[in-house]
Each structure stands twice: as structure tokens, then as C-alpha cells.
Amino acid sequence: MEKETLFIAFSTQKGGVGKTAFTVLMSSYLHYVKGLEIAVVDCDYPQHSIAEMRQRDMEQVMKDNYYKQLAYRQFSTIKRKAYPVEKSMPEDAIDVAENLIDGATIQPDIIFFDLPGTLNSRGVVKTLGGMDYIFSPVSADRVVMESTLKFATMLNENLISVGKSDIKGLYLIWNMVDGREKNELYDVYENVIGELGLNILKTFVPDTKRFRRELTSGHKPVFRSTLFPAHNSLLKGSNLIALADEILKTIKQ
User: Fold this and answer.
1) What is the Cα–Cα distance from 133 to 251, expressed in whole angstroms?
2) Which of 30, 79, 125, 201 is packed most tightly, with the most Cβ within 10 A?
3) CB neighbour list of residue 147: distance below 8 Å, 6 or more residues apart
4) How is residue 117 annotated by DSSP?
5) In the CATH hierarchy, which fold is given to the domain comprising 6-250?
6) Residues 10 and 19 sit within 8 Å (Cβ to Cβ)
7) Quick one: how far is CA 68 from the chain centroid?
8) Alpha carbon of residue 223 to chain centroid
9) Is residue 63 scored above 50 in pLDDT?
10) In this predicted structure, which of 103-117, 167-181, 205-219, 229-243 has the lowest mean pLDDT?
């Protein structure tokens, strides 16, 4: 029996809360470290941030012997090519994903979708309805919280609970948490989230500048890249591994 490819989106209608960063970090960690077959459909029109990042990563590797050797050692060790990143319009994203599956030598375990940060973009709601799982980053900021809860409640009431989608689960993720520990404010918000019938993962992601560290000519350890996983020296305190483990448990991978 052929395995099922899961369609997953880190999605919200509020910009700047980490949906693209989570897509890249999870894709690279699961593909290069955990050994899952990953693909990405970048339908965040018009910026296509992940496709642009892949282009920057490739250019940096090709012109810099340090990164070129790093890429060669990685390929020699894990015997895995870079995961594909395909650009798409939001309304065409499912078709692009299906074509990726049909044309793949090894069927992907997961295809991640990076969608526009607004439900008003053409095709976004339809594509979200085709996801197996949706993870929505949220921070303890009133504007972000209200926007994310509105987004999640709309999907839950209009798609999930009435059976008008393929969505098996919708989960919020605490992102940009200030300090090492959550405080009482988060308990209040989590009570509100529970009362709305929504779910939130236990793992929280701290507010740290390392999430913006990409490939540079300075050869510093990289955290966010489409060609390499987050460097081991930067993982401590990021909760990235714990988040990946909880997501894998949630989607039963």
C-alpha cells in the first residue's frame, strides 16, 4: 500500500509571527536530520520568500568554497539532495503538490505549504481546506492573539467542524515567548483558547534573534536555511527539536 503524503501549513492571517521561518526550519530539520522526505510549495504570492531564500542559499554555496564543502560533506554523509521548493499561486498549490508527488522518485512524507498571510488572497481558503494539518504561530500580543483566534475559529467553524475539508487537526504554537518560562498571562490566553474549542501545542518557542541567522559570507553557524539544518551550536534553548518531536507525534509520523 502506497504511503500517504501529508499536506501541512504553518498558517495565520497575521504577518511577522513566524509562519515562513517555521516552514523552513521544520522542512530542513525533518529532511536533513530526521530523514523524512520533504517538499515545499511556496504559494506566498507575490514575495515567494522561501523560493527566494533557496535562490540566495544556492548562490552563496556556489560562490563560497566553505559552504560548498559543507554541502558536499552533508550530501556525502546523509546521501540526500536538497528538498524541492516549488513556486505556486495559492489557488494552484494543491495541483502543484500533486504534480510533485507524481514526479518524485521517492514519494514525499510531508509537503509543507507557505501561504499568504491573509484569507482574502484568492484560493487561500480552498488550499487551507486541502491541508491535513495546520499549525498557527501566535504570540502573547493582543493584536496578534485576536487575529490568530479569529483565523483559527473561522477555519474550525466553517471547515473543520462541519466536515468541509481534509483537515485532521488545527494547532496553535506559542512563538516569540519572552524569557525562558511562560508566565500567568499565557495561562489566561490558554484558557480562552480552550474555551473556543481550539488546541495549542505544549512546546513554546522563545524570542531569539538566531531565527533570522541565514547563510552569510562570514561563515557563522546558520540557523535558517533551505540547504542546511539549524547548526547544533544554535539549537540549545531554541526548543526547535522539542517542537519537531511534538509535531511528529501530533501528525503520527
Assistant:
1) 8
2) 30
3) 12, 13, 14
4) S
5) Rossmann fold (3.40.50)
6) yes
7) 26
8) 14
9) yes
10) 205-219
φ, ψ for residue 105, nearest 5 deg? -65, -40
Give the pLDDT of residue 1.
Answer: 42
Backbone φ, ψ for residue 59 (5° rounding): -65, -40
Which residues, listed in sequence order, are joined to residue 212 by a DSSP beta bridge? none
Q: Which of 31, 9, 7 is CA-nearest to residue 114?
A: 9
- Sorted by sequence, the CB contacts under 8 Å of residue 219 that are 6+ apart come out as 64, 66, 67
| Number of helices and strands in the chain (H, E) | 9, 7
Residue 238 CB partners (closer than 8 Å, separation 6+): 205, 206, 208, 210, 211, 223, 230
Q: Which helix (H) or strand (E) holds 9?
A: strand 6-10
Cell numbers that stand for 142 in this block: 493582543
pLDDT for 2 beyond 80: no
Strand partners, 134: 9, 170
Residues in the chain: 253
DSSP 130: T
Structure-block grid coordinates of residue 15 = 504577518
Are 122 and 46 contacting, i.e. CB atoms less than 8 angstroms apart? no
Angstrom distance (rounded) from CA 100 to CA 107: 9
